[in-house]
Amino acid sequence: xxxxRCPHFWLRDGRSLYDELGAGYTLLRFSPGAAVDAFLEAxxxxxxxxxxxxxGAENVPPVYRHALLLVRPDQHIAWRADxxxxxxxxxxxxxRGG
Length: 98
What we know:
Glutaredoxin, four-stranded mixed beta sheet, 3 helices, 22% helix
């Protein structure tokens, strides 16, 4: 749920999810078909540090039921959905406080 700390789980290779979260924002993609390129480009254009973490084949806890989840630098959930909104720049503006 947005605002809560991102629930921990262990990645398939034994690493902690928390160790893989970036110093900026991290976009977790649980579904390889979820389009994120426009969002990543908007984040780059607006100077928002963003890392994409692909997690489609991991042993993911059931709490992760959305295809996409955006984690803030403090490891709290900023946003989640099954697809990107039409206005990806608006989402980037919202998370950066623009």
